[in-house]
Predict the structure.
Amino acid sequence: YAFWPVTIDGFDNWLLFILWIYVCGSLVSLAVTNMRFMLLPDKMLKPLLYSVVFYVLTSAAPAAQANSGSAGESILSSILGGLLLGGVPYLLFQISSGKWIGGGDVKLGAIVGLLLGWKISIVELIAYILYTVFVFFIISIAQYSNSSKINRIPTGFIWAIIAIGSFIFGNYFI
């Protein structure tokens, strides 16, 4: 509540805040599931997608957009964010034939991009790339030492964690 970027003074802003709490809970649930089972199930991704689309449409409503541009710009920004954060993982998925990144990561990336819009999606993508470089470094070290058998590290949870941080603090980096 303390970091919520909009004053909660009307029904539309309360609705956005409640939707955001639901989205955060869903992202945390996906992060835990991904860490534990190395999966991002469609049964969890679909409700998140629907709530994010509802969030985007609600936030694009004229009453909610009074201070931040037109509804069309907001929706276009979300679509571009979805293409950006869904496209990069999709490219990695295709190059590696699913060995580097899974299909759930591609879907979650697109959903997070829809939520964040294109500008904050760039912040998310930079953080994700830095994390990926770090993971490859850790896996490389682990493979050269016989003491560890790390060969896969889940990446879906990082989409979720960075998404929450990017939504709250992303405008400070733009």
